[in-house]
Structure formats: C-alpha cells, structure tokens
Give the backbone structure.
Amino acid sequence: MARLNLGSHDGASDAGEPVRVDDPSYLVGVPDEFQRLWTPHRMVYIQNGQQPNKDDCPFCIAPTLSDEDALIVARGEHAYALLNLFPYNSGHLLVCPYRHIALYDEATPEEVAEIGSITQTAMRVIREVSKNDGFNIGMNQGVVAGAGIAAHLHQHIVPRWAQDANFFPIIARTKALPQLLGDVRETIANAWPQDA
C-alpha cells in the first residue's frame, strides 16, 4: 500500500500515522500552504467537445448539440437561451439568434421579437427559481465594446442579488458560484413554461 507522509516534520499525520494516498478520500482536506477554489463547473468547457476550434462559432455549434451538452435552457423558432460558460453569477444566460449575425441592427423583426420574448421569460423563470433582486441585461456590440464573441449576436441576462458583490471579484478577481452549470441548466429548463 502506497503511503505519503504529509503531516508533521517526522512524516506522520497529526494522529501519528502516515497519510494514505491509495485512497483519494484520505487526502481531502489535508492542509497545506495553498488555498483552493474548486471550480468543477469549468470541466464542461474542456469535456464533451465544449471547447470549439478558435475559428468555429460556439453559438452556431450549440444548437447542434443536445440541450444538456450545450447548456441550452430553451429553444425558440429564431433564437435560443443557454447558460454562459463563464458566468458572472449563477443563472447567467445568453440569448442568441440561430442565424450568425454580429450586430443587433442586423436582426430581423422576428429575431428581435423572439430575443425579447425569451428574455422576458428568462427573467420570470430566474426570479422564480433563484429569488434574485434584479438583473443586468445587455449586449456588447463589437470587440471594442467588450464582446467576447463579437461575430455572433448574444444578449446577457445576469441575475443579481442585493449581497452578491463582495471583495472576491474586486481584490481576488474571482467569482464564487454556488451551483454547477449542469444543475443550474436543469433547474431553469425544468421551470421554463412549455408554451413559451
């Protein structure tokens, strides 16, 4: 049986026994000099083909995948809603037209109407399941305006809570997210009205 000594200077744990490494559960919570922020939700980005080629558009690829794999919560005729892979807060959704267009003024009246309708439904659903206090809603148009994926139009819907901001984002440039993306997707998709 392999053993690793991670305790006191004599190689023993605080209980005087070497720490086992043949069973990972023995290492959970073993103190060392590092602080860790566990972010298992980021695994969705590197597994199951979630990291597209740099020349591929993730918002064109997403509708070709299953809702679970693409984190899609609702599909309409002209647009759909999916979770942001890099959320500002839990429940951070993006509403995208299926058509690959860059700017809002290139959208058809039907696309504009459905983006608006999906946005309204998303607000109601998120408020119901998350009990949030408000929203940030907006579109960054073009790279210069901060669009991470400037080539495909998308609108952000970010739920906000009265106490959702603390020192983490400002000092540590870190967001703490209480739910995994798959769990958030399932909660929102299950609460989405069937007639919407």
